[in-house]
Amino acid sequence: MGFYFCKYFLIAILWVLALENGGFFLLSNGGITSTFVRNEEKSIDMPFDSDVFKVPPGYNAPQQVHITQGDHEGKAMIVSWVTVDEPGSSTVVYWPQDGTKKDQTTGQISTYKYYNYTSGYIHHCTLNNLEYNTKYYYEVGIGHTIRTFWFVTPPEVGPDVPYTFGIIGDLGQTYDSNITLTHYEMNPVKGESVLYVGDLSYADHYPLHDNRRWDSWGRFVERSVAYQPWIWTAGNHELDYSPLIGENKPFKPFLHRYHVPFQASGSTEPLWYSIKRASAYIIVLSSYSAYSTYTPQYMWLMEELPKVNRSETPWLIVLMHSPWYNSNTYHYMEGETMRVMFESWFVQYKVDVVFAGHVHAYERSERISNIAYNIVNGECTPVHDQNAPVYITIGDGGNIEGLATDMMDPQPKYSAFREASFGHATMAIKNRTHAYYSWHRNADGYAVKSDSMVFYNRYWYPKNDSAIQT
Ligand SMILES: *[C@@H]1O[C@H](CO)[C@@H](O)[C@H](O)[C@H]1NC(C)=O
Ligand SMILES: *[C@@H]1O[C@H](CO)[C@@H](O)[C@H](O)[C@H]1NC(C)=O
Ligand SMILES: *[C@@H]1O[C@H](CO)[C@@H](O)[C@H](O)[C@H]1NC(C)=O
Ligand SMILES: *[C@@H]1O[C@H](CO)[C@@H](O)[C@H](O)[C@H]1NC(C)=O
Ligand SMILES: *[C@@H]1O[C@H](CO)[C@@H](O)[C@H](O)[C@H]1NC(C)=O
Ligand SMILES: [Fe+2]
After folding, report:
1. Residues 2-60: pLDDT tens digits?
2. 311 CA to middle of ligand 3, Å?
């Protein structure tokens, strides 16, 4: 009794102190380590019979419906779904909101086995030559149980096209994951597509990587991803590498279930690729594929960066799973080897922002680089660099592994804001110079910005945006 009284009394005092400090303690020589008081109970996966995992009714009804961009410019959409009773039709019927004529196109079916699990019939169908900026309805399940969804295509690629992205990472399928997704849906800043920074279902948390958890995850996120594209990045929980049970082909379930338009950007693997969407150029990298000199990913990125035309797409955004700058003890320095390989290119080509996941907390860096070191000169400390991206770690979707609360102390100077709370972010591009970014913790109201920054474009308006908050 006394213990609990003390605990709550202490929390109350902390709150008063926090309020007096404008909401934060400044604990170190770096930026802000928020001391927001949260519930640190373990995250629990929602049971299979949860409402969010409900199998749609009807014979062979399509489930786990999801869409992603299907070409390089945003005029195509890949529609994917799973049927379980029989293969059924891979045809998608679709039409623009104001149109009278229905189009249809047919995709392909595949299945895979994982140890003693056999997948349902996985359908992927690409809708091509769509009009920009148009609402389309689409039907799947032709011949059996038809389900109808819709999406809005992005505006034509151009330098001043406003567009809003949501950013989510490491979501998993716990009660907290559901809160994160709900907050994204309810956020008054309306995301039009999601930049997903890896670690989807966490099926590998279960014995034998129980792939039924891939299916339940697909049903859980359908309520968002059937209506707006999620741009996929592979994380370590997509590896599903388990040679002891004979599963030695990395990424097998992920690659069967989630297709991306990698060939459209000249990539040879779906694990790294790029797309243009509105005024943004998005490069997706794989932390878990080779990236040293001469490897396919290295060669692709070397040729890719000079192709980005900032007069067409001013905003250059990179997605990866393992962060290069992370001051949490969890996964500390895991992204270091990739940083050493690619960071100088990011500075040379003025990447605006890098989003990563992996660490189950939130962190935003200053614009810094650490590219002067040459083995002998000892210059191995990050320095302020206005040509460098801001690095944002947002692996705080809410998965079963819980929050990463243990941070390096003191907070490094380059770290502008960090906090171990679940949440998501949005990035609202306004024009070629300005983008409004904000992070939204689950414990706050839907409209609350728990961290925010106005981004000045590195190519068109490379002014110091370090302390510009909304
Ligand atoms: C797979 O094997 C596990 C462990 O033996 C068992 O619990 C499970 O029911 C099996 N699943 C199928 C689909 O046979
Ligand atoms: C998940 O969130 C939705 C929307 O808030 C809610 O309707 C549903 O009951 C939640 N399910 C679980 C299992 O928490
Ligand atoms: C870059 O994009 C602009 C605007 O679309 C275009 O006018 C210009 O020709 C492009 N530059 C190159 C090198 O393709
Ligand atoms: C770009 O957007 C910002 C923020 O809305 C605004 O202040 C600025 O005037 C805009 N620039 C142009 C050229 O319209
Ligand atoms: C950018 O602005 C911040 C905050 O005003 C300041 O601390 C920092 O020194 C500035 N950086 C540069 C390179 O001017
Ligand atoms: Fe991860």
Report:
1. 334 344 444 444 443 333 333 343 334 678 988 776 666 678 999 999 999 999 999 99
2. 6
Task: Assess whether the previous peptide bond of 410 is cis (omega < 30° from 0).
Answer: yes
CB 304 within 8 A of CB 285: no
Whole-angstrom distance, CA of residue 287 vs CA of residue 430:
30
**Ligand 1 site residues, Cβ closer than 6 angstroms:** 116-117, 208
Ligand 5 neighbourhood includes 386 CB (under 6 angstroms): yes
DSSP 388-423: SPEEEEE--S--TT-----B-SSPPTTEEEEE---E
pTM: predicted TM-score of the whole model, two decimal places: 0.94
Cβ of 43 closer than 6 Å to ligand 2, yes or no, is no
For ligand 1, mutation pick of 117, 118, 208 (most atoms within 8 Å of CB): 208
Rounded to whole angstroms, the Cα distance separating 328 from 412 reads 10
Distance (Å) from CA 192 to ligand 2 centroid: 22
Measured in Å, residue 55 CA sits from the centre of ligand 3 at: 48
Please identify every residue annotated as catalytic.
331
Instruction: Strand 280-284: give its sheet, edge to edge.
Output: 32-33, 415-419, 362-365, 390-394, 353-356, 315-319, 280-284, 273-277
Tokens of 47: 């049971």
The predicted structure's pLDDT at residue 371? 98
Token pair listed for 185: 């849906």
Give the ligand at the shortest distance from the Cα of 47.
2
Tens digit of each residue's pLDDT (9 = 90 or more) over 196-246: 999 999 999 999 999 999 999 999 999 999 999 999 999 999 999 999 999
- The DSSP call for residue 142 is T
For 229-261, give one letter per residue: b (16+ CB within 10 A) or e: bbbbbbbbbbbbebeeeebeebbbbbbbbbbbb
Average pLDDT over every residue of 347-351:
98
Residues 6+ apart with CB under 8 A from 413: 29, 30, 31, 366, 382
Determine the 3-state secondary structure of 431 from DSSP. coil
Cα–Cα distance for residue pair 216/49, rounded to 1 Å: 10
